[in-house]
Amino acid sequence: MPRIGIAGSLITALFLLLALAGDRVAPYPPAAAHYDRVLAEPSSQHWMGTDHLGRDLFSRLIAGTRTTLGLALAVAAANAALALVIGSLCGFLGGRLDAIVMRIVDATLALPGFLLAICFLGLFGGGIFHLFLFLVLTGWAQLARIIRNEISIVRHLDYITANASVGYSTGRNLFRHALPAVLPSLLILLLNTLVGDVFAIVSLSFLGLGLSPQTPEWGIVLFDARSFFLTNPWLFVFPALFIAVFTFGLHLLADGLREWLDAKKWLFPAEEVQLLTATASASGSDTA
Amino acid sequence: MGRRLASSLLTLVIASVVSFLALELAPGNATELIIGGASREMSPEALQKIRGAQGLDRSPVSRYCLWLRSVAAGDLGVSLKTNRPISTEFKARLPVSAAIAGGALCVAIVVGLVLAIASVLQEGRPVDHAVRIVAVACHSVPAFIIGLLLIYLCSFRLGWLPLYGVGGGRGLVLPILTLGGVMGFSLARIARNTLLDAIHEEYFLAALGKGMSFRQALVRHGLRNSLTPLVTWLAMRFAGMLGGIVLIESLFSLPGMGSYILEAVFSRDYPVIQGYMVFFCAVVVAANLCGDILVRIIDPRAARVRIN
Fold first, then answer.
1. Mean pLDDT, residues A161-181
2. pLDDT for A273-286, tens place per residue?
3. Is B11 close to A118, i.e. CB distance below 8 A?
4. Eight-state DSSP code of residue A40
5. B contacts of A278 (beta carbons < 8 Å)
6. Which secondary-structure segment (H or E) carries A19?
7. Considering CB atoms only, which of A116, A203, A251 is closest to B144?
8. Residues of A with CB below 8 A from B285's CB?
9. A221: Cβ contacts below 8 Å, ≥ 6 apart
10. Taking a C-beta distance cutoff of 8 angstroms, is the pair B248, B178 a contact?
11. What is the model's pLDDT at position B29?
12. CB under 8 Å to B180, separation ≥6 — which residues?
């Protein structure tokens, strides 16, 4: 794997580790308020300072990694599962089903997803499950479209035709032979949509929508900072750094992975698939 | 084009059904929403009367048709909080948001094209690298964080611009620069890459061969040929930019559509949320359609190639 890919995977692994075992690393519990040390500047005691309730910012950001990243991963996984099923069926079977579903995909893609998420949260109330649900509802279409396009190319490749001619069932041909061909590009796409999901979650929390205000979460840390950030700039600088390093790591990983997979051409049955991956990832992660 | 129009129309229909259903399915029943919490103390007959007057005893389909007809006529209903027509409120708030959106688009296009041309002319030199680094940095955090940073630096530290509010138009400068700048740097990167592709094309070499200077050929021929992907990209980003406007308006306390929807969300003003949904779905569909038409005007070949 190229060097940027290794750097990217190290950064990503670090954040995953923080999400999994952050409570062991964090110097304080995320909700522990120190009223004698309210809005303290960064020091040896509080590396990133404290917020308006005297809570340690570093600990809150580490705990926030679990919430933000966990939720974003859940959203990405659900989107990928939905998109895989819908996209591969449409792409492989074609016909009327494909035509109808793709019009729905068109419509979903043509609507302002983030604005709809705000409206949905306003109508149905917040909470982690609703946040998850609305991000999936507005996010599956993009992935489904790309998977459908790739599968519909793979479907016409010689090896799939050959499989069908020796009597493989459609299901076996699709899931065992066509689908694996698009998985690498799906992985790269997912890394890009993960960034978009994190941005959406952080943005919604920053507006005070979605998660309850006590939750340690990157966007809520920023929301808490809103009234104090002018006099205490570290309250938004450090969360911004957390997000930026995470995003940067994911982008590096995605780029490295793409280079690596391009070098291993045997993984792809057709060059067209790579072309699609390139265009798809160039247009990925476009939220807010 | 007919196919494209049909798909826009379908999108609008789906958007309207979703908006209608959203209010139908939202927790709490519609009668209670309209008369507030008082429904429990009312007699069933009185309740029935209100339901009849509001058309709530009809079937959902006929209510949808009635609602759609009034929406099409520009009547989005009445706000539960202020009891005033939603469309009046929209008219008062739309100019602020439209100014931000229009301004941000202009800034993005100007910044994007200028930086792209500079990057191509200075390929591999400091300018090129600087644009790339800023573009990556802007891309690494949501735009509102850049806004926080700019408020801190430009308004608070340096005192150049007002911290919040419209301030006679001066307050709009920073929001526009934030949104437009972030988009502009992304646009610059994309434009740079399409321009670098263009300079290896035969028509470009021909232009150089005719004796045009590199810069002239780049602006007259290279740029025109790379406009299509840029317009497509801008149209695609438009919906995302509207989301960014909500955040920016909230951040800068601007009295636009974005802060209106947030007020409505926090006060559970359901009809406003519904009206907002319908309105912005229509705006985005119209914007996408405009983008498509623009692409066809710039590059008539696009009409002949059908991409599925």
1. 87
2. 444 444 444 443 33
3. no
4. P
5. none
6. helix A3-25
7. A203
8. 110-111
9. A51, A57, A60, A61, A64, A235, A239
10. yes
11. 59
12. B103, B104, B105, B106, B107, B108, B111
State mean pLDDT over B136-161. 87
CA atoms within 13 A on the CB side of A216: 24
Higher pLDDT among residues B222 and B40, named by residue? B222
Name the minimum distance, in Å, from the CA of B265 to any CA of chain A.
4
Residue with tokens 């400091």: B126
Q: Which positions in chain A touch B280 (Cβ < 8 Å)?
A: 112, 115
Answer whether residue A104 shows pLDDT above 60: yes
Which among B144, B250, B277 has the least Cβ separation from residue A119? B277
Mean pLDDT calculated for residue range A254-259? 87
Express as a percent the part of chain A with pLDDT over 90. 38
Mean pLDDT of A94-110: 89
Which one has a higher pLDDT value, B52 or A210?
A210
In a 13 Å sphere around the CA of B27, the CA atoms on its Cβ side amount to 8
Residue of B3, B9, B25, B145 to mutate, testing the A interface (most A Cβ within 10 Å of its Cβ)? B145
List, in sequence order, the alpha helices (H) in A95-177.
Answer: 95-110, 113-124, 128-154, 158-165, 170-172
Q: Give the pLDDT mean for B232-255.
A: 91
Task: Judge residue B115's burial from the number of C-beta atoms within 10 Å of its C-beta, 0-12 exposed, 13-18 middle, 19 or more buried.
Answer: buried
Residue entry with tokens 């623009």? B294
pLDDT-derived band at B81, boundaries 50, 70, 90: confident
Output DSSP code: residue B78: B
Residues of chain A positioned with their CB less than 8 A from the CB of B10 = 103, 106-107
pLDDT tens-digit map of A133-161: 999 998 899 899 999 988 988 888 888 88
Report the pLDDT value the prediction gives residue A275, as an integer from 0 to 100.
47
Helix orientation angle between A234-263 and A3-25, rounded to the nearest 10 degrees? 140
Considering only CB atoms, B26 lies closest to which of A123, A208, A248, namely A123
- CA-based nearest distance B209→chain A, Å: 32
Task: List CB contacts (< 8 A) between A251 and chain B.
Answer: 136, 139-140
Res B35: pLDDT: 62
- At residue B32, φ and ψ (nearest 5 deg) are -60, -40
Q: How far apart are CA A80 and CA B220, in angstroms?
A: 43
Cα–Cα distances (Å) from A173 to A80, A88, A117, A269, B209, in that order, read 20, 11, 37, 14, 54
From the CB of residue B264, how many other CB atoms can be counted at a distance below 10 Å?
Answer: 26
* Chain A residues closer than 8 Å to B274 by CB: 119, 123
Model's pTM, two decimal places? 0.88
> Would you call A106 and B10 a contact, using CB atoms and an 8 Å cutoff?
yes
Q: What is the ipTM of this complex?
A: 0.87
